Every structure is written in C-alpha cells, then in structure tokens.
Amino acid sequence: ASRALAKPGSYVCPHLSPDGKRLALTSEFKVWIYDFARETMTRLTFGSEGECCPVWSPDGDYVVFASDGLTWARWDGTGTVERLPDPHGTSSVPFSFSPDGRWLAFHRNEPKTGYDLWAAPVIRNGGTMRLNPPRPLLSQAGLQAAPAISPDGRWLAYGSDDETGRLEIYVIPFSPEGPPRLGKWQVSTDGGRGPRWSHNGGEIIFRSPDDHLMAAA
Asked: 15, 60, 83, 189: which has the fewest Cβ within 10 Å?
C-alpha cells in the first residue's frame, strides 16, 4: 500500500474516480476533490455543513453525497447543486451506483425499522442528472447498511445484524425492478462492514471489527 494523500489532515470516506485521477473524500464534514497530478484539494460545494460519504457516478461526471438528503453536483463544481430531501428527518447515505448508471443504492434510517436499503432511479438527460423517488430494496428491523452493487449489476453486498446480532456481510440478488430474486449468502464469518467489490467481481473486500481489510470470494 502507498499513501494517497501526504498532507496531514482528517480524511474519511475516500472514493476513487472511475478514471483514477481524482479522489472524493470527506474532511471536517465537507466534501473535497483531490487531484493526484496537481496535488490540489478543492471543496466540492459551499452549501450546508454535515456533508459526508461521496460516491462517483460511473461516467465520473457527478459526485453524490449525504447532506440533508441525497445531494449531487458535478465534480468540478460547475452547474447547480441538487438534492433529494430526506422524508421525516431520516438520514440517507449513498453507497454505490449500478454499472450502467441507472440506479443509486443507499441506506436510510427509517423511524420504524432502523436502517434499510433503498435504490433511487437515476435519470440522465444530456449533461444533467436527477434522482427519482427511491424504491425499497430490503426493509426489516435492525441494521442494514452499505449496499454495494456488483460490477455486473446482478448482486448486492451489504452489512446486516439481522441473523447473528453482529454486523456481517451478506450478498443477495440485486433486483430493483419486478419481483425480487430469491437467495441470500453470508460472506463474512467473524463480523464485517463496508463491503466493496473487486473490479472483476470475483472478491468482496470489507473491514473486520478490528479494522483489518478482509477479502472473500
């Protein structure tokens, strides 16, 4: 491993751009874009505080992040900042796009069930982007979080404490349209959170409870 950003600071939620040239991250509750070649850090927006968890669109044009709802802007700060507000004061956190860019998966804290998994349809019209009202992917009591769509768009990895009482990584079919496909597989064995897929979809990488990086087929 090599250090991606040498300047001292408090950095969380790093997300690499699709072309590998930039890093979206959160620092001091604001979203920034770091340019590797220029070694420059640019704040994405100048709106409300409490920003976090940036995610790149598959074409690299937009960054979606959490800030009083799902919020998105062009990575270079041009154009307008758009927002899909949270209902009833819930907290929506974006996590992954489908590879075709048609869906954004996120988790949201629901008053009755706790954190559930949702997917918002993504509408692209020319150079603009908007999110339509989301659809539930998995709604049940307990914690369901960090929905990661596989590179082929067929599967969803996520963290849940529904079976063991401890946060573990599971995989289910990703089917936001039509009847859900059946099946559920546990990936982690001793706890895990924050799953990500390898580029070829052959492995799921996640964090163990003691903050080690783990990988499982």
From this structure: 189
